[in-house]
Design goal:
heterodimer, A: 248 residues, mainly alpha, 9 helices, B: alpha/beta, 4-stranded antiparallel beta sheet
Chain lengths: 248, 377
């Protein structure tokens, strides 16, 4: 039996697992965003909290992923919950770090001007700091998302759904076709997530701060519209997967 | 309008401002000037509370600013800084409208105001409003900065070296436009610079600072003519006054005790007096009141054969005259227009002095002679 035969016989399962994988990754990265960005903003204001928070995130990142999964089992058991938890923890460092870098690297004179003309602290954050930091923050999110796709594959080891299931059971049964049926979609998924991340990064970068903004303004706007279409499609797909998971 | 009372600022041991007190009048353009580190920017930033004084009080229209709501205070004070003041991710329109928008002004009102502001700074709204700051030249960006400061029509505007990064020609244009705006709109402006030329050009009053203290607070004219000490004199520059000759008054250069005669004197006596004093003309005056009557010239007398005639028969009476407070530029213009020298200086019809073409030439050549003398020494 060759690879294509395996795929054609098992495609409902493969598609299910791809959907699961994407759903879990989206969920993890989404939660990491919700935790990481506010935390990053918070510690760029409270200098005293910066070191401990970044330190903890660094330590988590340094622990091998398999070991971290091992730690999770006694506490959270096996299944989806520990897997998602571990992936969130792993995604935090790039998101927090880039948020801090983005927020603190803004020209202090410009911020003083923003305060000087009478914006409140919150308005400065919302209208000046976040928009200017967003490209850097999104770069962190992109790294986090791509790593998460990979990590989610490994997380199947402790019982999470996803393409890792095919890889691990393929290894156990010495079924190369099964291994490939899990590994290839996982790779494609990672590339796809990276592509989406890139679109996001470009879309949130103010037009005026993109390389040749002066000369190619029309082209940039055109390209930007195309990116919005990609992102909207991807968002619809992910929503569809979540809704699908709820119904079936 | 703005009053500083015993303001002191100290960072640990380092005293930045040492007991500063001064007042800025309504509608005045005051320039704070000094070398870097003299505390001028610190002083400016205290007005919109970006910096809090260690001790002392600042009053704005009689109210202690420390007691005011800081956001409201800042929105009522325009703030223009060097270059980086515009937000790069916002269009020109968004940059100008940011404060009106967060102050919840009506959209139609904001749009109308923006168009008005663009016209005020001489930029075409249709052409520029949707551009980004990076697409504009330095001078245009700075104009937008000024427009943003005027957005809510504040009474007070603070400017922190707004033109210092511009090329000299653009800077000069913007300085002129600022003076024009100021005379039209009568805003109270506090302007920080380290360029004395700029200060003299735009200021109603100049506040010279050094080491956290105010050294001299005066009109540009006074600062130029009567620097209070050597520091000010060297800061102003020895020959600075010659680049602004409109600040030199007739009073400063006139001959104070001109040779005079009275109308009953004979032509012979007048001529003798001229020969003695080595002059070629005399002012004819009423002896006691020093009332000006006319001018008699040696040239006229020489044509006469009968020198026992009275001066009053020959003297020229329809002379033009000037007053002590006229600038020498004006005086020079008068002399050229009417081809008349000497020019009597009168106060209430009385002679107080005299200006001749010769004395003007001597005055105007002083800077060149002084420079030459320095070189030799």
């Amino acid at each position: 039996m060759n690879f294509w035969q395996y795929v054609s016989r098992n495609y409902p399962l493969i598609f299910d697992l791809i959907a699961d994988h994407l759903r879990l990754t989206a969920l993890s990265v989404g939660l990491a965003l919700v935790i990481g960005i506010p935390l990053g903003i918070f510690i760029s204001y409270i200098q005293r909290a910066k070191k401990p928070v970044l330190g903890v995130a660094n330590v988590i990142q340094a622990i091998p992923s398999m070991a971290l999964l091992g730690f999770a089992i006694p506490i959270l058991g096996i299944g989806t919950v520990p897997a998602v938890t571990i992936v969130i923890l792993y995604s935090l460092l790039p998101i927090i770090k880039n948020t801090v870098t983005g927020i603190t690297n803004i020209n202090p004179e410009m911020l003083e001007a923003a305060h000087g003309i009478g914006l409140t602290k919150f308005q400065v954050l919302r209208k000046i700091q976040i928009p200017l930091a967003l490209p850097v923050i999104m770069a962190g999110v992109r790294i986090a998302a791509v790593t998460s796709v990979g990590l989610m594959t490994i997380a199947a080891y402790i019982g999470a759904d996803g393409l890792g299931y095919l890889v691990f059971s393929g290894i156990r049964t010495l079924n190369n076709n099964q291994i490939l049926a899990g590994a290839i979609p996982a790779c494609l998924l990672a590339l796809f997530v990276d592509f989406l991340g890139n679109q996001f990064e470009q879309v949130v970068t103010p037009i005026s701060l993109q390389g040749d903004a002066l000369r190619h303004r029309e082209k940039l706007i055109h390209r930007r519209n195309r990116r919005y279409v990609y992102l909207a499609t991807a968002t619809l797909v992910i929503i569809f997967i979540f809704v699908g998971a709820a119904y079936f | 309008m703005i009053r500083f009372e015993h303001i002191r600022k100290q960072y640990k041991e380092n005293v930045v401002l040492n007991d500063i007190s001064f007042e800025v009048q309504q509608g005045e353009l005051v320039v704070l000037i000094g070398e870097s580190g003299c505390g001028k920017t610190t002083t400016l930033k205290m007005i919109n509370r970006l910096i809090t004084p260690t001790a002392g009080t600042i009053f704005l229209q009689g109210k202690d600013i420390a007691q005011m709501n800081v956001i409201e205070l800042r929105r009522n004070i325009g703030y223009v800084i060097q270059q980086t003041g515009l937000f790069p991710h916002m269009t020109i329109k968004e940059n100008i409208e940011i404060i009106p928008k967060v102050s919840k002004r009506k959209p139609e009102e904001i749009a109308a105001r923006t168009t008005q502001l663009m016209e005020m700074i001489g930029m075409n709204p249709d052409q520029f409003l949707n551009r980004y700051p990076t697409e504009l030249s330095g001078g245009q960006q700075q104009r937008i900065g000024v427009a943003r400061a005027f957005a809510l029509d504040p009474d007070v505007i603070l400017m922190d070296e707004p033109f210092s990064a511009l090329d000299p020609i653009t800077r000069a244009t913007l300085q002129e436009e600022l003076v024009e705006l100021q005379t039209k709109l009568k805003k109270t402006i506090v302007f920080v610079t380290h360029d004395m030329g700029e200060a003299i050009k735009i200021a109603d009053r100049i506040c010279i600072m050094n080491d956290g203290k105010i050294i001299q607070y005066d009109t540009p004219e006074e600062v130029l003519k009567h620097p209070i000490n050597d520091f000010v004199a060297s800061f102003v520059g020895k020959n600075r006054i010659w680049s602004s000759p409109e600040y030199i008054k007739v009073n400063d250069i006139m001959i104070e005790d001109p040779i005079t005669t009275q109308r009953h004197a004979t032509l012979f006596q007048a001529l003798e007096k001229m020969r003695e004093a080595r002059v070629d003309s005399l002012l004819v005056i009423e002896p006691r009141s020093r009332k000006f009557l006319g001018i008699i010239k040696a040239k006229q007398i020489r044509l006469e054969t009968d020198r026992s005639q009275k001066v009053e028969l020959l003297m020229k009476t329809d002379c033009i005259s000037t007053t002590p407070n006229v600038s020498i530029v004006e005086a020079l213009k008068l002399i050229n227009e009417h081809q008349q020298s000497p020019l009597p200086v009168l106060q209430d019809g009385k002679v107080v002095g005299l200006i001749t073409k010769g004395s003007l030439v001597t005055t105007l050549s002083t800077p060149y002679l002084a420079v030459k003398g320095d070189d030799l020494a």
